[in-house]
Write a structure and sequence with these properties.
By secondary structure, this protein is an alpha/beta fold. The chain contains twelve helices and four strands, in the order E-E-H-E-H-E-H-H-H-H-H-H-H-H-H-H. Helix content is 68%, strand content 8%.
């Protein structure tokens, strides 16, 4: 049978549909309706599409084959391509052509044994750790090198990042710290006043805010606020190929983007932590004065007696480690982005979750190192 256009012909013999000529934009519009009607008369379950006679195909021809296969599938026919010339196959591959029976939205993954799946996941974890420690090593190397040589870094960028990470985070960190100190004092005061030990609320707050709550609440606030911003900024740069442009200009993306943030969070996180401790103790003072009817002077004297330098230094050490975790995890996920806007959102969420988990894990390890087997006074 002949199509209306002389450029393309088709012949249906049994369950074999053979095309000849050129499947191009000028020819395919008149073919689709005729061929689809012919295919409905096929009395078998599989239709073989023979392309051995096709000498040329363009994007319209690829769309024609895809539409034809979809119509055949709706009619209960499975379609297979046969005798496809190399030149035609290359064109089909260029337009990511798939058989209509294949899943157009996702690749079919082969399922393996339990051990194979475990091995694949462990190998993927190994690759992820390798990438993470590459970012870590590059950051520390260029940060140490940058102390002596400021090349490859934007002028004033450290100050700008310090304002974004530190100064702009002060209101939320201060509010959270005040409420934490306020609530801890309120909950403990209800119990301590039963035994006439209301003054010891100062000891409880000092120990908890300096050792644990101050550093960890500051870190969680920074992870949610600054860590997500770091991950999303770097991920957007990767998606828009800005990091590739930096490499083309001879600039290392880690040195140019990550190191200023590393300096900034290293400088500001300990300051925020100290402010968090002070504000948390102030929140407890409000409860001591209003709820426990304590005077300010006895409360502050008890705070001074309960405050140990080791506790403050431990809190500051934690703040450095937490800050590095936040910036390095954010940078790793930012550089590891895949896809477009959806990928940016995915790595931003992942960076916050991972940062908070690693902060809590690091806090537990440091607590075991410094205080395991020791009394309150350490």
């Amino acid at each position: 049978m002949m199509g209306e256009e002389a450029q393309a012909e088709y012949r249906l013999t049994g369950s074999r549909l053979r095309f000849e000529g050129s499947l191009v934009r000028q020819a395919v519009p008149s073919l689709l309706e005729q061929v689809s009607q012919e295919c409905t008369r096929v009395d078998r379950t599989t239709l073989i599409i023979d392309l051995s006679g096709v000498d040329r195909i363009d994007s319209a021809g690829v769309a024609f084959l895809s539409e034809l296969m979809m119509l055949c599938r709706q009619a209960g026919l499975e379609c297979d391509l046969a005798e496809v010339p190399v030149s035609i196959q290359n064109t089909l591959n260029t337009f990511s052509f798939r058989l209509s029976g294949e899943d157009q939205t996702a690749e079919i993954k082969e399922t393996g044994t339990l051990l194979e799946n475990m091995g694949e996941r462990l190998y993927q974890v190994y690759l992820n750790l390798q990438d993470f420690f590459t970012v870590v090593s590059d950051t520390f190397f260029y940060a140490a090198r940058g102390l002596l040589n400021g090349e490859g870094r934007r002028r004033g960028e450290v100050l700008k990042q310090s304002i974004l990470i530190g100064t702009d985070a002060l209101p939320i960190v201060g509010l959270i710290s005040f409420l934490i100190g306020f609530i801890l004092a309120l909950q403990s005061a209800a119990q301590l006043r039963q035994f006439g030990a209301s003054i010891y609320v100062a000891d409880l707050i000092v120990i908890s805010m300096t050792r644990e709550m101050g550093p960890i609440m500051t870190a969680i606030a920074l992870a949610g606020r600054s860590g997500s911003a770091i991950a999303s900024e770097i991920a957007n740069m990767v998606v828009t190929e800005e990091t590739d442009a930096l490499k083309t200009m001879g600039l290392n993306p880690v040195r140019y983007v990550v190191v200023p943030k590393f300096y900034a969070i290293t400088l500001t996180a300990p300051m925020l932590t100290i402010l968090s401790m002070v504000i948390g103790i102030f929140g407890a003072l409000v409860i001591a004065v209003t709820y426990l009817n304590l005077s300010i002077s006895p409360f502050l004297n008890e705070v001074a007696n309960a405050l140990f330098l080791k506790d403050v230094l431990t809190g500051l050490l934690k703040s450095f480690i937490f800050a590095w975790i936040i910036v390095l995890v954010g940078a790793y996920y930012g550089f590891d982005v895949k896809g477009g806007a959806e990928g940016v959102g995915r790595v931003t969420t992942a960076s916050v979750v991972t940062s908070i988990f690693l902060v809590i894990l690091a806090d537990s390890i440091i607590g075991l190192i410094f205080y395991f087997g020791q009394g309150v006074e350490g």
